């Protein structure tokens, strides 16, 4: 195979990737569309409680990586404070290095797995925004129900969740089928939320590192009822 030819991405059976290599590949990428839509939904809604607040706004960025969305949340409004977590020390270091002193004062960086988040942040109704861009599929399936329940409990009513779920026709479903959902299952997970944006995308294309992949992804922005 010629060097220039895209190669199929490989995943181990435990869904691990070379995250520093991924961080290099996305280092100059813009924030995720779902994160921007969530910010717009929170700050531009006519009579919503959050838009008119003068208090601090609290966001949690789950599996923030090297911080593309955390930086966008901070830039969106000086009221935002972000609890940014990732299991990768390298990702958090890159995020830390990218912040001005003023922005760094509005961020708490915590190295943690998604699987342990519910124990780490036990406060219900404490987040205006929970962002999980291309993150939840990497939660171990045994822990996903608890993580999803915690997200619902941690958002304030009117708070917004943004992120991705992988569909059951995604190529990686063969590696870890329980981390992939049918449309019906996704709609079941979104019970108790108002759907702000739901886009189901199925296509063949590149992954972030130039490998070929069949993608089946649900892009989700929802507001807690
Ligand atoms: C596809 S990247 C997404 C990063 C970032 N949210 C973005 O959109 O660019 C997945 C991220 O999940 C993190 N990750 C993988 N497994 C994890 C786990 N079990 N707990 C917490 N973070 C995890 C990786 O370190 C990586 O930063």
Pick out the low-confidence regions: none
The distinct ligands, each listed once, are: S-adenosylmethionine
The CATH class designation is Alpha Beta
- Ends apart, CA distance between termini: 52 Å
Give the helix tally: 8
Determine the fraction of residues in helical runs and give it as a percent range. 25-40%
Q: CATH homologous superfamily name?
A: Vaccinia Virus protein VP39
Overall outline: globular
CATH fold-level topology:
Rossmann fold
How would you characterize the largest beta sheet? Answer: 8 strands, mixed
Derived from helix and strand composition plus strand pairing, the structural class reads alpha/beta
Question: What can you see in these coordinates?
Answer:
There is one protein chain. The protein is an alpha/beta fold and 225 residues long. It has one domain (19-46, 53-224): 3-Layer(aba) Sandwich (Rossmann fold), CATH 3.40.50. The protein is built from eight helices and eight strands, in the order ααβαβααβαβαββαββ. The protein has helices at residues 19-26, 33-43, 68-76, 89-98, 101-104, 117-120, 144-154, 183-189; strands at 57-62, 80-86, 107-111, 127-132, 155-167, 180-181, 193-206, 212-224. Strands 1, 2, 3, 4, 5, 6, 7 and 8 form an eight-stranded mixed beta sheet that branches. Helix 7 links the parallel strand 4 (127-132) and strand 5 (155-167). The longest helix has 11 residues, at 33-43. The protein is globular and about 45 Å long. The protein starts with 18 loop residues before the first helix and ends with a strand. The model has no long low-confidence stretch (mean pLDDT 91). Bound molecules: S-adenosylmethionine (SAM).
């Amino acid at each position: 195979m010629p060097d220039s030819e895209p190669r199929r991405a490989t995943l181990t059976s435990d869904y691990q990737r070379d995250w520093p290599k991924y961080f290099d590949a996305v280092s100059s990428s813009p924030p995720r569309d779902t994160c921007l839509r969530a910010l717009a939904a929170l700050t531009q809604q006519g009579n919503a409680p959050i838009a008119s607040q003068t208090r601090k706004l609290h966001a949690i960025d789950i599996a923030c990586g090297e911080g593309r969305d955390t930086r966008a949340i901070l830039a969106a409004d000086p009221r935002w404070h972000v609890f940014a977590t990732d299991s990768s020390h390298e990702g958090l270091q890159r995020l830390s290095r990218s912040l001005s002193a003023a922005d760094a004062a509005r961020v708490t960086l915590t190295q943690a797995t998604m699987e342990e988040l519910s124990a780490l942040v036990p406060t219900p109704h404490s987040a205006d925004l929970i962002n999980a861009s291309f993150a939840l599929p990497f939660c171990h399936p045994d822990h996903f129900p608890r993580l999803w329940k915690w997200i619902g409990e941690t958002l304030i009513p009117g708070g917004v969740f943004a992120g991705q779920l992988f569909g059951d026709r995604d190529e990686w479903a063969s590696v870890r089928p329980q981390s992939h959902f049918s449309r019906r299952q996704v709609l079941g997970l979104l019970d108790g939320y108002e759907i702000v944006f739901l886009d189901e995308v199925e296509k063949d294309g590149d992954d972030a590192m130039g490998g070929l992949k069949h993608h089946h992804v649900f892009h989700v922005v929802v507001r807690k009822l």
